[in-house]
Protein 1
Amino acid sequence: MAQAISIQKLLDEFERLPGIGPKSAQRIVYWLLNANEESAQRLASAIVEVKETVHFCPRCFNYAEGEFCAICTDERRDQSLLMVVSEPRDITAIERTHEFSGLYHVLGGAISPIDGIGPDDLHVKELLERLANTEIQEVILATNPNVEGETTATYLARLIKPLGIKASRLASGLPVGGDLEFADEVTLGRAIESRREL
Amino acid sequence: MAQAISIQKLLDEFERLPGIGPKSAQRIVYWLLNANEESAQRLASAIVEVKETVHFCPRCFNYAEGEFCAICTDERRDQSLLMVVSEPRDITAIERTHEFSGLYHVLGGAISPIDGIGPDDLHVKELLERLANTEIQEVILATNPNVEGETTATYLARLIKPLGIKASRLASGLPVGGDLEFADEVTLGRAIESRREL
């Protein structure tokens, strides 16, 4: 065998990561072989550290390092507004917009009868407990705009509205900067339906 | 800040790797967060291990784990044939072809006056020492088919031939399975020039 065993082992480990094929893995491994000791050590330590320190926030199920996550502990956030998302990564996307200053609740997925995922497999019970005990006035249902996400949003809206809490959904429409010509018909239909008066 | 500090740190570390942009880094980090402890630990350990165990073979400058590299220690390899390459990664590419069973010599680059890289910055002295002391009958100069690679090959051939050792170069021509129509003119010109009689 031409390849050192530890190089092959590292190649295998990188190839298991999402979006990394054999060529990318090889490029990274050769980069690491040429990198200084400290640089490689930093990557290895960061991986270990993330697994040691990151857990789920017991309140909103976002990733957290302290007892609660950075958003739950931030008192400047609007405590009356709650956004429900499927995964912690959706929070990152929303935070990037700087358009939302409320709190979050991560479901940990979406209702999908085909995959055998029902409301009991998601953090729905915990959501209802939060709504019963807090000053939340509006819940934005920000699950994905696909079948599972829509089903989940509809299901949750039916539970939330009887509590006297407003339930809303992110708008669907044409992507900003997009081209009308290339929009799919469902998105375009939704954009017409939800047109704004000027 | 919405992101846990250790997550941001790991994102930064992955983004420093070649070919990994912010989106890929995020995908990998979320994958690791969902992966089991052992799986993440394996990746971290493989990185540390590669830096601890891999060094350069003192004979051919390939990556090695033992005293010498796996190819230098393999007695079944043809000791009369030596292939000169720029980087250890070139050995991986050649080995994949299963067409070469000789030994290698890694230069650690190619002659490039623009980048200030001359013969003294490469393992040329060590190559000449090997050629003086061993039974090598032919040296295949497998540096890249670009300006630096050609310059290096020409330079080395001038040193090797006076020793009574054959110097050869990998053939240039059309890639197998390629399309004549899409070949660049230099490659196509080279293919005409080096045409084989049938």
Protein 2
Amino acid sequence: MTFSSKLIEKAVEAFASLPGIGRKTALRLVLHLLKQDKTVTEQFASALLAMRDGIQDCRICHNLADEAVCQICADARRDRSLVCVVENIRDLMAIEDTGQYRGLYHVLGGIISPIEGIGPADLNIDSLFERIKQDEIKEVIMAISPTIEGETTVYYLSKKLQPSGVAVSAIARGVSFGGDLEYADELTLGRSIVARVPYTR
Amino acid sequence: MTFSSKLIEKAVEAFASLPGIGRKTALRLVLHLLKQDKTVTEQFASALLAMRDGIQDCRICHNLADEAVCQICADARRDRSLVCVVENIRDLMAIEDTGQYRGLYHVLGGIISPIEGIGPADLNIDSLFERIKQDEIKEVIMAISPTIEGETTVYYLSKKLQPSGVAVSAIARGVSFGGDLEYADELTLGRSIVARVPYTR
């Protein structure tokens, strides 16, 4: 792609450095901004700068926060006896979007992965145990993706949580709602028969 | 999508206001910027602001320019007797990328479209005729997409150019190189038979 303008070239390269955005898409975005009023670009840039500058790590649960404590931890209406352990902020948001959970969270910031050299010390695990010691937590829910690394992380945490006497649970697994048995993977289907539950209407 | 941070929400909305970027992609981009050093976001924002602030309309051809005259118009090695008329900057860049053209350009900034209420007065047409009057232009090449509006624009321009005595040409049309005849559309294939050219080796 040949640019007759250095300014355009730099703006295209800035967009194209973001994941999943190629140079053609980047050019489309730049030309879009050029068609809009100058204030649109200014507001766009200031929203990003304010975000990058102002965002904090919630000192309780490590969620992204505008203050020292995130909106969820600060919300008095939430059940403070429940803590849901998640890998990252995206998983936290996915659970929030269901509207089914009213407890607190704890964001690990990753999962244990020996291959990638990520051990327990690299994750927000110590702060989880601090919370269990200090707060009135009764149950820790493991909402970690069922991959090998995820299972390892859940196993490690549940072992370490045992002495504390806090209840440990994991999100239910099985065939998706609306899913077709025929197309469910063998492992999920097999386990969902073994782990069958009493039928209730 | 529920955000527990206003700063994140605003940054996601900023990205999602761009064409072709949904809220999920926007969130991915924001989280990417958060993982990077602060300077990455600062450089990103300043590239966009510098571009939006500094970019000019080339006063000769209406290409995007860093100065009053774009790099192409300022390039002494280019053939100043040839002007290629294009609809927009993207088409200009596509032709530049072929490396086959060494003349100048004229960017119309659109095409005549009665449905969308775009008439000749809304396009950079007067400045094209000014150039033909003043400069040593011998040939005007119409490189406009072969749509109904495109054909209308080419017809209008060629009619208006007739009295000036300048040669008017249009880019060649036919079956694509490497294209399969079987899959060429009927109109293109039909016209490429009618407009057949002498075979040369």
